[in-house]
Write a structure and sequence with these properties.
This protein is an all-alpha fold and 110 residues long. It is built from four helices and no strands.
Length: 110
């Protein structure tokens, strides 16, 4: 399988929290590095699938930070918007966050 699907990233024991005040677990850190490597290698889409509570929010924020993204669009169900906002600000208190209310999207025909 490794000959056909060559891994882009090999796990390392290198600590990195991507500037976050919230320290990620090792597996979260490695997922952030792996997804970041995939994007910088030209892959345009990556799926991170996991159960509720495994830290997908923190990992997504970490990927944006690792890639030095100027802007990041996060789309979530309305009941999770405040959770996302809190998680972003807990990890990166100086980030600016704009929430587009559901009603505004409806006006745009989305």
């Amino acid at each position: 399988v490794d000959d056909i699907l060559r891994p882009l990233y090999k796990m390392q024991d290198e600590e990195d929290n991507f500037g976050s005040l919230v320290k990620p677990f090792a597996v979260q850190r490695e997922l952030v590095k792996g997804i970041s490597k995939a994007f910088t290698s030209g892959i345009r889409a990556v799926f991170a699938v996991g159960e509720m509570g495994v830290g997908k929010s923190l990992m997504g924020i970490g990927v944006a930070q690792a890639l030095k993204a100027k802007r990041t669009l996060i789309i979530s169900p309305p009941h999770l918007v405040n959770k996302w906002k809190k998680e972003v600000l807990k990890a990166y208190p100086t980030k600016r966050i704009a929430v587009i209310p559901d009603q505004s999207l409806r006006k745009l025909g989305v």
